[in-house]
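Explain this fold:

***
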Amino acid sequence: MTAELVRGQNHPLTQTRLEIRVSAGAPVVAGATLSDDEGRVHGRDWVAHPGAPALPGLEVPRQAAADHRLAVDLDAVPEAAHRVSVLLALPTGPGDPDRFGAVAAPFVAVTGLDGSEVASYTITDLDAESAVVALELYRRQGAWKVRAVGQGYAGGLGALLTDQGLPDARALAGEIGEAVARGLARTVAPPPPRTAASGASAMADATGAASHASSPGPHPSASPPRSTQPQSPAEPQPSPAPRPAHEPQPARPSGQTGPVNYTHPGRQAPAPSVPALTAPPVEPGQPAVPVAGDATGWSMDERLYNQVWGMFEDLARCVAAYRSAVDFADSRMEQELDEALSDPRSRVGGKGDAAREAARAKHGQLVDRAREVLDRDLAQLAAESAVVEPALPPACAGWDNPVWHAYRSPMEIPMALRLGDLQLPESRGVGLRIPMLVRLPLERGMWVDSGRSGADALTDSDELRRRAMRSAVELAARLLAVYPAGEFAVHVIDPAGSAAGALAPLVRAGVLAAPPAAGVAGVSEVLARLTQRVDLVQMAVRGGAADALPSDLDTAEQLLIVNDFPHGFDDRAVTRLRYLADEGPAVGVHLLMVADREDAAEYGPVLDPLWRALLRLTPVPDDHLADPWVGHAWTYEPPNVPPGSRILEQVLEEVARARREQGV
């Protein structure tokens, strides 16, 4: 699993041959230095830069670009060197940005040679700095670790190298600038704006990523490209980056025109074998026309999945930029007021009033400018959502999408499943919701929390339980619908029979593997059967004897819905439930708990691992999810069937028909 670092955090490295991948919103210069155990660089031959790109164990790019790959072989690093520092600097050419605060926050990832991420770091909170030490790999007691540094220098590369003890740092920084200028002809330019002819355009992994128990981002195994954001055609787009960028304030560098570019940096031209939906030509000065499937991928479903998560990252980024700009305006106003009124003689009278009015006026201008940029970006994202939503396949579509009315049992497993929608307070005004998608097969179970929260203060507790079970049934129905007939089975534990009404659609359609289990004996029997299945499949997989499984073993993916936990559970049953949560997903057994966390509190800390292992969902909108980049509190909305609709029954009838044809 990737370690997403914050400033100052470290992480052990188990590999010595690595790549450092850099993604930024504008061309940057990448380099590296070797230093001793005190952090001192002994000379020029300990600095890898575009003019001298190779050192023992290090190789850096020869040119400025919006994304880089640096090769590192820690076994080849000289014994005298204890640190490898990765440096980023802005080019000093005419028209180039002169500070990191005016471009997208750089993202740096340490990966294996196979591309698997070991650790990553988004360098936020930069402003006037034009050079930064991004990461350092350091040797400690014979082992190597990586640390997120993020130390910026307003004095540029010269100040950075001086701080590392290089004697002729300023001269070397000038030579590096000259080497970059000589390589301008080779510089990797950002991709051009999207056009109808090329289909190219500018896009969180990820998720279920960053989807940890409290994270709604993309699946960890997925690294989708980013989605299109508003831009000026005269303003180049950045090149691919696997994470959202956080811009501290919406100001532009001196001499550069146009709005702040929130473009996702990873969109590329679609694969030739999968034609994109075409967009009309873009008039000069107008934002790009949104197109469904305008992301990388070898199929339309994959491209739509990547586009959705690009929209999620775009929304996170532009809201982070807005909030940061407002915070900056607030702190600036406070600072100006403190400075203006520090003299007691100026605190009263006309001079003090004028100072206060000027500070408030400047604050209002900054906030208004930030809001204007945010409104522009939200409008563009809303327009993109309006074309993407109708194009989604059933597994990713809402229940109100007409695609369900033409539903037929699929022949293959889709790549992702929709668990609901995500929203931020700033996006509610335009009705912008981002589908919350997780990759299939599921890698973790889910807990539909029927307890009370801040979002349901007026909802009756019994009604919450009914809604929670209804949400679980709708999720189970969706899983049955998106898997081929016979490749997904649903079991239900309902100890007291209190969920009979909510379970009626599944029972009537005959799509359950067995009638809902009731009572202590029923709970024990179902858990024992699924635990035995996990044990058998694990032994077969580990022993390389998958063909030796019993002939009557159901090899389909299994979902166990547990209602009203912990009623009907003894200590043995709780232990088995924890075992299924930990070991089940790897062999196709998944939990869907429906319970109030407070009701389960009697078990104390024994259930804490179970609570953390499952993805918490709610039957009503609630802001309990947080993204892993900037920590936004996202409002989760469950994917409820519209009131009065019979689409759930129609879909389950089709599932039952397909199962009968397959003899399931």
The two ends are 37 Å apart (CA to CA). The chain is about 30% helix and 20% strand. The CA atoms of residues 366 and 610 lie 46 Å apart.
